[in-house]
Specification:
Blueprint lengths: L4 E5 L5 E5 L11 H14 L3 E6 L13 E7 L8 H11 L1 H5 L4 E7 L1 H6 L22 H4 L1
Length: about 140
């Protein structure tokens, strides 16, 4: 029997239940996103983690898992410069970056930084790739 609810993380470590039908996909529909979430959780023990598949904003086929934005808030980042934090995230996701992930945007914050600014930066618009190829239109252009 399938569950009727899923857990959703809110600010910091709060949890809430959402009806399963409110989910646009199940984790099995998003294997790369699920792998990213699992590896970052296991490696960095974040107090807050957001993984966003932004592939739909780029000129890729519908359902792609190639462009991601992650926000990782972890005590593991205390005392580390930003470049070292990014290296930790990249190392955790080495297989994904060598495979299907084309782009990864990283925000790596300490819990103190997150508490003073609990926001995820917006992604810039797609400016390259096949965006201007008439045969490859964005999904939002087709809807």
């Amino acid at each position: 029997m399938l569950p009727l609810f899923r857990l959703a993380r809110g600010p910091l470590t709060s949890l809430r239940l959402l009806p399963l039908r409110a989910c646009s996909h199940t984790p099995m529909d998003r294997p790369v996103e699920s792998s990213i979430r699992a590896k970052l959780s296991r490696t960095l023990a974040p107090t807050h983690l957001e993984v966003r598949n932004e592939s739909h904003l780029h000129a890729v086929p519908a359902g792609s898992e190639s462009h991601f934005r992650v926000l990782v808030v972890s005590p593991s980042f205390e005392g580390l410069p930003l470049v070292q934090r990014h290296r930790l995230v990249n190392e955790a996701l080495r297989e994904e970056l060598a495979g299907s992930v084309h782009a990864l945007s990283i925000q790596a914050k300490t819990p103190q930084q997150w508490s003073s600014d609990p926001s995820l930066a917006k992604s810039p618009p797609c400016m390259g790739g096949l965006k201007h190829d008439p045969g490859m239109r964005l999904r939002s252009d087709r809807e």
